[in-house]
Specification:
The protein folds into 2 domains: about 15-240, no CATH class; about 265-505, no CATH class. It is built from 24 helices and no strands. The chain has helices at about 5-70, 70-80, 95-115, 115-125, 130-140, 145-160, 160-185, 190-200, 200-215, 230-250, 250-265, 265-280, 285-300, 305-335, 335-340, 350-365, 370-375, 380-405, 405-430, 440-465, 465-485, 490-500, 505-510, 515-520.
Length: about 525
């Protein structure tokens, strides 16, 4: 009898995580579609060389921007769910702790970057005296805006319902970018103005996020913004190790693009950029779920509710495997068909895309272990795993890219991805003290993978690995899913899953009450680790 409240609480947390995950998945689907449209607009509008220049500039923004955030975005997602919201809470104090250092630092970097754009351009771009210096100046000049967007989106993610961050991060920004870049293409503008179109939506996101934070943080009701000394120490003690690992995580594709540009040429970098966009699109399932459940995991782990946190992880990872593995198997089988949509020049990346699809199956197979590791406060262990992957990626790229071009970059990236994820999975298991990867997860992966493998082999055998084979395989997959629904056991599982999406009266009560009640009762920050 004594364990009934715990079971009820665990069930409520799983239902909450599932509902949030469903919203995150919907946002990820929209984001993935819009990201593909953006890539298509860029590569079709500017070809391998022009798209390589734009992808290189985006890579600079991504890498330098994440570095200037210094881990503050993840630190907000970790720390804000453990604080009290509202005008009498202590959550608002963390906003200046996160924003002031990052904005000052990014401003200094922006000034230096604009001044050094001329000497840096020949290192990153093929054509001396071309658009490289202008692209770099624009990238660095808007750096503080990019950093502000990243930090404020993270704050919204931590204190608002998941629909808020999905609306900004997965709909507003991804929708505006292809529209503005397409307008530049139609108007005959060059790569610099097109890159400006990619940057501009950050300003819209900053305004939207600032408005969303006013109420929850009590900024219009007299909330205290002056931090205490302990706020700085706790926050940046977590953030600084995360700063390096976040740079590695966010720059994985763009680092490979930059290395390929330097070691093999801008055209190869453009091909790798197109391949990478396809490969990373499959991770949007995991990213959507991570965005949805990370604050919940931080709250549970901050209250030492590790059993419930592990159950939320397992349910989330099950969804990731079932949805991601079929996508990556199809991506690997029909790489020539996918890349043909970009143009014949991109066909050289087919083998590289197949290799990377296998790496991403490992990445998605361990689920959100990196989020678990970070939300438990172990940013240092996460940095160790990410650093090991980075060293392997860069070291192998230097050896392989000059000889093998895009394929060499893909192999180097693959080794880094696999090693980083296996190390993070082991560290997360030790940190949480609960089993994470179970037999049920392995069974789900085996079933999803085997079924897709059979259908993909049939489609490729009958119609080849081009668009025709891809279309046939997708059609067979849809028919197979429909036939599965004829089985009563499958329908029962689907109905049970659908039931978790509907909040119970207790869930409504929990979600309507202050979400930080347990932390508030313990003194606000005392639950931090």
């Amino acid at each position: 009898m004594s364990d009934r409240p715990d079971r009820a609480a665990a069930g409520g947390e799983v239902r909450r995580g599932t509902r949030n995950g469903a919203v995150g998945l919907a946002g990820a689907a929209v984001n993935g579609l819009l990201g593909f449209v953006l890539t298509l607009v860029i590569v079709r509008g500017f070809g391998p060389t022009g798209s390589g220049a734009i992808f290189t500039a985006i890579g600079v923004v991504t890498i330098v921007g994440v570095l200037c955030c210094a881990g503050a975005d993840t630190a907000l997602v970790w720390s804000l769910p453990r604080r009290r919201l509202g005008p009498r809470g202590d959550a608002a104090r963390l906003l200046p702790v996160a924003l002031v250092p990052t904005l000052l630092g990014s401003t200094v970097v922006a000034v230096a970057g604009v001044a050094l754009a001329g000497p840096l351009a020949p290192v990153l771009f093929d054509r001396p005296g071309g658009d490289g210096p202008a692209l770099l100046r624009l990238a660095f000049a808007t750096l503080p805006l990019t950093v502000a967007m990243t930090v404020l989106v993270a704050a919204v993610r931590a204190v608002r319902p998941v629909t808020a961050v999905v609306a900004v991060q997965y709909v507003l920004v991804p929708l505006a970018r292809p529209l503005l870049v397409a307008a530049a293409v139609v108007g005959g503008a060059g790569v610099v103005l097109a890159f400006g179109g990619w940057l501009f939506p950050a300003a819209l996101a900053v305004l939207a996020c600032a408005a969303m934070l006013l109420g929850p943080l009590g900024l219009t009701s007299g909330a205290v913004l002056w931090p205490e000394r302990a706020d700085w120490r706790t926050f940046w003690g977590f953030a600084l190790p995360r700063a390096a690992s976040a740079t590695i995580d966010a720059s994985s594709l763009w680092l490979s693009v930059l290395l390929t540009t330097a070691l093999a040429g801008q055209a190869d970098a453009g091909v790798l950029g197109g391949v990478g966009r396809y490969v990373l699109a499959g991770l949007l399932v995991m990213q959507g779920l991570r965005v949805a459940v990370a604050p919940q995991l931080s709250r549970l782990l901050g209250q030492d509710r590790t059993v419930e946190a592990a159950e939320v992880y397992r349910r989330t990872t099950m969804m990731i495997i079932v949805l991601s593995w079929p996508a990556y198997l199809i991506l690997g089988f029909f790489a020539p068909g996918f890349l043909s949509l970009f143009g014949p020049e991109f066909g050289a990346g087919a083998t590289a895309m197949t290799v990377l699809a296998g790496a991403m199956m490992v990445n998605s197979g361990v689920g959100i272990v990196q989020t678990m590791l970070l939300m438990s406060g172990n940013s240092g262990k996460h940095l160790m795993a990410a650093s090991t992957g980075l060293v392997l990626n860069v070291g192998l790229a230097v050896v392989l890219v000059p000889r093998h071009g895009v394929l060499g970059a893909a192999v180097a990236w693959t080794v880094g991805i696999v090693v980083e994820n296996l190390l993070a999975a082991r560290a997360a298991r030790i940190a949480i003290g609960q089993p994470l990867l179970t037999g049920a997860l392995l069974k789900a992966g085996a079933l999803a993978g085997a079924g897709t493998l059979v259908l993909a082999t049939l489609g490729a055998t009958v119609a080849g690995r081009g668009v025709a084979g891809l279309a046939l395989t997708v059609a067979l997959l849809l028919v197979g899913c429909a036939l599965l629904l004829l089985d009563r056991r499958v329908r029962r599982v689907v109905r049970a899953a659908a039931a978790t999406l509907r909040p119970t009266p207790r869930d409504r009560q929990d979600e309507g009450s202050p979400d930080r009640a347990a932390v508030a009762g313990s003194g606000g920050t005392r639950g931090m680790r």
